[in-house]
Description:
Layout: H1 2-74, E1 82-83, H2 84-101, E2 104-111, H3 116-122, H4 124-140, E3 147-152, E4 155-162
Parallel strand pairs: 1-3
Antiparallel strand pairs: 2-4, 3-4
Helix pairs in contact: 3-4
Amino acid sequence: SRVQVIILLMLFSLFAMMLLRHQVKMTEQLNQYKNRLEHIVSERTQDLVRKNEQLKVKIDERLKIEAELEYQANIDPLTTILNRRKFNEILSYEVKRDERYRNNLSLILCDLDKFKSVNSPFGLLVGDSLLLTVSRRLSRYLNPMDTVARIGGDRFAMLILSINDPEEL
Length: 169
């Protein structure tokens, strides 16, 4: 019976060693899988970071292009004030607001008389300089809420907003 106990202990020890070896082997495999997975995650993270940086550059470029297109769509290139298209858009909005709130809205149209008598004999540079000077002077005397635009050739428009006192309504 003592021999049986020793044999059983030896078998149990042998089985425990086999289990321990199996556990060590499984732990090593798990560590290998973990290391591979961490490597894959690291590579993919770096790839995503690179792609995000590239995307940010493209988005920034697109935003600059969109801003430039909006500027070109709304601003007269010579005088750098609003153009007719943008002025009409603002005018439509302000007329609707004026109908609702009954503000004092004024529209002033200006046409430079005899502009051709300057532009033709003295050339386009002098004519352009005159248009630029007129646009700057018109802009200088307006409030920030008011709008000035070149609506074509030698014609300008101003939209003057006078907000009523709420107590008067």
